[in-house]
Write a structure and sequence with these properties.
The chain is of the alpha/beta class. It is built from 18 helices and 12 strands. The protein has a 6-stranded mixed β-sheet with strand order 5-4-3-2-1-12, with helices on one face. A 6-stranded mixed β-sheet has the order 6-7-8-9-10-11, with helices on one face. Helix 12 (254-273) runs parallel beside helix 13 (297-309).
Length: 535
């Protein structure tokens, strides 16, 4: 009876799985949905004969809803880019459906002991696909399933043991166990009229309990003693809208727009440095003006005036044009020492596809007009450690979406910083688009703090400027008088308490869960190969 029911409603179950996945991520941020989102998908894969004959179609529907519902906001910048991105990303759930059908034996009724194997195998395949997505075609790792646990202070601590991929592995495992456990309970009620213990359901509860205990144990770790009272800082959130260049709209006065933006940012900064209690660190967000601090005279003069009036450290984002190096363009972070006597430079290492570079854009120039991407940026050589003398602290800068990339933060953490500073723009997204994209960006950033036991200061152009502690908790954020945190401007002041970082298992061993998942996937592939030869 179950099989016929799941078969007739298979498209609705796939749609439900997609909707639950969307609800798992910001702005809904329902962490509970991450634990059950794949339950209806698993029922379709294993109980519907027609879905098993056409797994790619059904998985693709899940993917279209999953990624279309979480990435539609990218259309605010490039509608055609968002369209093709969703079509591409939807392939991953479709491939997972296919691999599950081909590589994992169909669960037999009453064979509860084999369900754990099915759950672990399905989780390994899911993690391998997420890993592939994170680097293939330059990678796009946003909204991996493990990110859904960002709002959960306990379960997100699992990232300290194995990163976001470990959380994804656990979630898929529990989803499969829930799915089989619920069916087992219903079947028992139908056949025997009494509830008998369901091994898969009990196993799911056990896994959740163990993960909760690990997360709680990690939260209780000793902080250690901080040798200083804290770092005082001021983040400038000027709320400058970013207008993509459009040759068809010559009436837009870009020069006056950038002048007004610079004046607003400079005024906010001078008001801060004129105060009696000056911060130790003044921070500007990622480059808001399409000019270089050493190439554009007004921008250079503004920075010079602030440095003269300010006796602290000044971190800002700006572009850098390397004319002598082949007309290369970089997205940079500069740290100026007190009074601007010296500076250090960090060049962004990971660029945004369709935003900072366009594959084959030079080969096919018409693509640039179609997508709206002009000159490509050039990636920098690697992470950088910025050093402050008063107070004696070090930090690693991250630019734009680099705080969503585990490998970039990992390389920066290996330099031994006391904390991270993310400078981002996010001003390309306004209104509803910002409510989705900006909150998703922050939801990813909290995991970098958990993975490396280090806090983070985030300075954004239009929001969200905040402080994240080493447990991934947003302890303070900028808000205007009405409580708005996005599309508002002002100065975010605060004090960062920095404790000695304790190396996490993830920092020492990296993504070990990927190696295990790869081994399991290879074994499934070998098993499938011998089954084909036997037939």
């Amino acid at each position: 009876m179950f099989d016929r029911w799941f078969d007739s409603c298979r498209w609705w179950w796939c749609a439900l799985a997609g909707v639950l996945l969307v609800a798992s991520f910001a702005p809904f941020s329902c962490a509970t949905c991450g634990w059950i989102a794949l339950v209806p998908a698993w029922w379709v894969i294993t109980r519907s004969e027609r879905a098993r004959r056409q797994p790619i179609r059904h998985g693709y529907l899940v993917g279209l809803i999953y990624f279309g519902g979480t990435f539609w906001w990218i259309s605010n910048v490039t509608a055609i880019g968002a369209f093709f991105l969703v079509l591409y990303l939807a392939l991953y759930p479709a491939i997972w459906f296919l691999l599950v059908v081909r590589l994992i034996p169909r669960p037999q009724k009453g064979a509860s002991a084999s369900v754990l194997f099915h759950a672990l195998a399905a989780a390994a395949l899911w993690v391998m696909l997420e890993w592939w997505r994170s680097w293939f075609l330059t990678g796009f790792n946003w909204n991996e399933l493990g990110i859904s646990q960002g709002p959960s202070v306990v379960f997100r601590q699992l990232a300290a043991f194995g990163g976001v991929h470990l959380i994804s592995f656990v979630l898929v495992t529990v989803n499969v166990l829930w799915a089989e456990g619920v069916l087992g309970i219903v079947r028992t009620l139908q056949e025997k009229r009494i509830v008998r213990a369901s091994l898969p359901f009990a196993a799911a509860l056990f896994v959740v309990a163990v993960c909760f205990a690990l997360g709680w144990h990690h939260l209780q770790r000793p902080r250690g003693a901080t040798p200083w009272s804290g770092l005082t800082f001021a983040c400038i959130q000027p709320n400058i809208p970013q207008i993509p260049y459009d040759e068809s709209k010559p009436y837009i006065d870009f020069q006056n727009t950038e002048t007004a933006a610079l004046e607003r940012t400079e005024k906010l900064s001078l008001d801060v440095v004129a105060e009696k209690e000056k911060p130790d660190l003044l921070i500007w967000p990622e480059a808001m003006i399409d000019e270089g601090v050493f190439q554009d005279r007004p921008l250079n003069e503004a920075v010079h005036d602030i440095c003269l009036a300010y006796g602290g450290y000044f971190l800002l984002g700006s572009q850098d044009f390397d004319i002598g190096g082949g007309h290369k363009l970089y997205n940079c972070a500069y740290l100026f020492t007190p009074h601007g006597e010296q500076y250090e430079e960090y060049r962004k290492t990971r660029l945004v596809i369709l935003g900072e570079f366009l594959p084959f854009g030079d080969t096919f120039p018409w693509l640039r007009k179609l997508v709206g991407v002009g000159m490509d940026f050039t990636p920098g050589p690697g992470p950088k450690l910025f050093t402050m003398k008063t107070p004696p602290l070090t930090f690693s800068p991250l630019i734009c979406f680099e705080d969503t990339l585990p490998e970039v933060a990992d390389r920066a953490a290996r330099l031994g910083p006391d904390f991270f500073v993310t400078i981002t723009n996010d001003g390309w997204y306004r209104g509803w688009c910002a409510a989705w994209g900006v909150r998703q960006h922050l939801e990813h950033a909290v995991f970098r703090c958990v993975e490396h036991d280090r806090p983070m200061i985030r300075c954004a152009n239009t929001g969200i400027s905040c402080v994240i502690d080493r447990d991934g908790t947003v302890v303070s954020r900028y808000a205007d008088a009405s409580g708005g945190v996005i599309d508002v401007g002002g100065v975010f002041r605060g004090t960062l308490q920095v404790y000695p970082a304790r190396g996490t298992i993830y920092e020492r061993w990296g993504d070990w869960i990927i190696l295990i998942s790869a081994l399991v996937s290879v074994m499934l592939g070998i098993r499938f190969f011998f089954r084909l030869r036997a037939t």
